[in-house]
């Protein structure tokens, strides 16, 4: 026990020594300066840093600019990625069809689209009835509403002049340049019609136009069906009719609306003429292989000559209707017509068309000179080369008419250029009788009386037709007033 007391009183404990160490160390530090401490690892790293790092880490202005630059770069990359993703999605999900104005289906589609706009307008007018709203689907009603509120419209005017002189006009507002939305076979289609004012069709001078159709890729088959419907609608307007084409620059364009086909039996020529020409044309159309095997150019030329009003042009129109062909009319005296353009037109005739050159004798007889030069720059040699030259087209049927066959150059009517010639003269007794019975059915006795009244007189079929039209449904008056017909001749 004494030993323990002595230890506590004489010598300090371990705890006391530990408590006394700081004070003694502090005292020693104040008394003497300790040696320099060795450099730490962090200090060595700071010395090893580059000048760029020293500037950037301690400069708040530079840190702010770098952040903005990083944000801008990130946004730009994000925008570029979004555009690329949108373009990729568009290529994968959408399909586009472009129809230029030079393509034949361009007019077909515009006609179809105008009819759809007219149908939509009619449905909108009928929508006032309660049952109309139930008959149309919500999609069709929405499409009609969008088309009706289109801000881009164009006008198509339907003009028709009747025989009595009255005129009926109809204005159709159709979608014009801009974007439109239509619904076809359950698929939504965006229609964009654009016009490039800087580009134009050199043949017509019209601005270059394009129609672009866009729909979902899964609905791409509707494009083919739509174009087929447009084609059927365009051809339906020509069904049972004859289209008359005229030259417009270096191309052929329809002249006016299609004409109703004229029956071949309505044109009464002298016995045998109509049958001979019809048989020859049909034999030509069905024997292309026969011509090719014998090395003969596959083209046929016909010349109808005779006095005016004898029915030459009327017969050609009726023949085209019988064959279901169209007619291309070319005036060789047209201002600005050249040899090259003539050759181009005769080489690029529309399919199933008859080329008609009327009054061929007057093409080079009277060439008037104006301030701009000759009205037509077609030479006689240019016409011959176009008819039967090296560049002449195959499968062509040409009809020429003239009132004065004696004025024609023999080179023009030689075989190869004119293969069949027929004289179409004034009405014979057989023609007069047939025409009378056609206008006044069942009046055979009066027909003979009318023929006897015109014996030894020359009368054209055109004059007879005008006489019968004037005394329509009055056969006896037509006979009693036959002197009016003779006075005109």
Automatic annotation (TrEMBL):
Compositionally biased spans, kind Low complexity: 31-41
Reading the lineage from the top rank, the first entry is: Eukaryota
Domain BCS1 N-terminal, residue spans: 69-267
| Statement: the UniProt record of this protein carries the keyword Transmembrane helix | yes
One GO BP on record is: mitochondrial respiratory chain complex III assembly
The record's region (Disordered) falls at: 1-49
Q: What is this protein called in UniProt?
A: Mitochondrial chaperone BCS1
Q: Which organism is it from?
A: Actinomortierella ambigua
The taxonomic lineage of its organism, from the top, reads: Eukaryota, Fungi, Fungi incertae sedis, Mucoromycota, Mortierellomycotina
């Amino acid at each position: 026990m004494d030993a323990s007391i002595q230890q506590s009183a004489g010598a300090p404990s371990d705890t006391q020594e530990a408590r006394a160490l700081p004070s003694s160390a502090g005292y020693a530090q104040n008394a003497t300066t300790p040696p320099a401490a060795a450099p730490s690892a962090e200090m060595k790293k700071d010395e090893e840093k580059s000048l760029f790092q020293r500037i950037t880490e301690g400069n708040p202005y530079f840190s702010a600019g770098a952040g903005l630059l990083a944000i801008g770069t990130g946004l730009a990359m994000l925008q570029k990625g979004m555009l690329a993703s949108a373009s990729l999605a568009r290529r994968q999900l959408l399909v586009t069809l472009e129809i230029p104005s030079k393509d034949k289906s361009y007019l077909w589609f515009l006609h179809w689209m105008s009819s759809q706009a007219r149908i939509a307008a009619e449905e909108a007018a009928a929508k006032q009835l309660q049952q109309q709203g139930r008959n149309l689907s919500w999609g069709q009603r929405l499409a009609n509403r969008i088309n009706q509120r289109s801000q881009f419209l164009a006008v198509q005017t339907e003009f028709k002049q009747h025989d009595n002189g009255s005129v009926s006009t109809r204005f159709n507002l159709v979608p014009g340049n801009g974007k439109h939305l239509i619904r076809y076979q359950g698929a939504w289609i965006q229609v964009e019609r654009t016009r490039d004012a800087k580009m134009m069709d050199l043949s017509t001078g019209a601005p270059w136009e394009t129609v672009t159709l866009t729909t979902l890729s899964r609905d791409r088959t509707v494009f083919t069906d739509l174009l087929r419907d447009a084609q059927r609608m365009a051809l339906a307007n020509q069904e049972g009719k004859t289209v008359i084409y005229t030259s417009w620059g270096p191309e052929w364009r329809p002249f006016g609306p299609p004409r109703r086909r004229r029956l071949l039996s309505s044109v009464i020529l002298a016995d045998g003429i109509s049958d001979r020409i019809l048989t020859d044309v049909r034999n030509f159309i069905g024997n292309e292989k026969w011509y090719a095997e014998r090395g003969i150019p596959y083209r046929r030329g016909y010349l109808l000559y005779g006095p005016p009003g004898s029915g030459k042009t009327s017969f050609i129109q009726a023949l085209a209707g019988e064959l279901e062909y169209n007619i291309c009319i070319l005036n060789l005296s047209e201002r600005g017509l050249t040899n090259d353009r003539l050759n181009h037109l005769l080489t690029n005739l529309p399919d199933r068309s008859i080329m008609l050159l009327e009054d061929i004798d007057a093409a080079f007889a009277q060439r008037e000179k104006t301030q701009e030069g000759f009205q037509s720059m077609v030479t006689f040699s240019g016409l011959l080369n176009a008819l039967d030259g090296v560049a002449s087209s195959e499968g062509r049927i040409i009809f020429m008419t003239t009132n004065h066959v004696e004025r024609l150059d023999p080179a023009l009517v030689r075989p190869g250029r004119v293969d069949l010639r027929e004289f179409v003269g004034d009405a014979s007794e057989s023609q007069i009788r047939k025409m009378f019975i056609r206008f006044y059915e069942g009046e055979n006795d009066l027909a003979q009386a009318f023929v006897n009244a015109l014996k030894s007189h020359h009368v054209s079929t055109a004059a007879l037709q005008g006489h019968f039209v004037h005394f329509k449904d009055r056969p006896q008056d037509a006979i009693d007033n036959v002197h009016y017909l003779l006075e005109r001749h």
